[in-house]
Design goal:
With about 60 residues, this protein is mainly α. It has one helix and no strands.
């Protein structure tokens, strides 16, 4: 039982670290930013840090 809990804890920790690293690598976005045409249809916060102080980017 202890070994199973250690594996589950390790997997959860790895997922959290991966999510945190993506938030550092992917730039922050303003909540008013429009998504590009072929952008993932998930909410912004799943991949980006959403911050009102982030600059709005022009879409091409």
């Amino acid at each position: 039982m202890r070994r199973v809990l250690a594996w589950i804890g390790g997997i959860v920790a790895a997922l959290f670290v991966g999510w945190a690293v993506l938030h550092v690598v992917i730039s922050p976005v303003n909540p008013e930013q429009e998504a590009p045409e072929q952008h993932v249809s998930a909410p912004c916060w799943t991949c980006h840090i959403v911050s009102a102080s982030a600059e709005l980017q022009e879409l091409e």
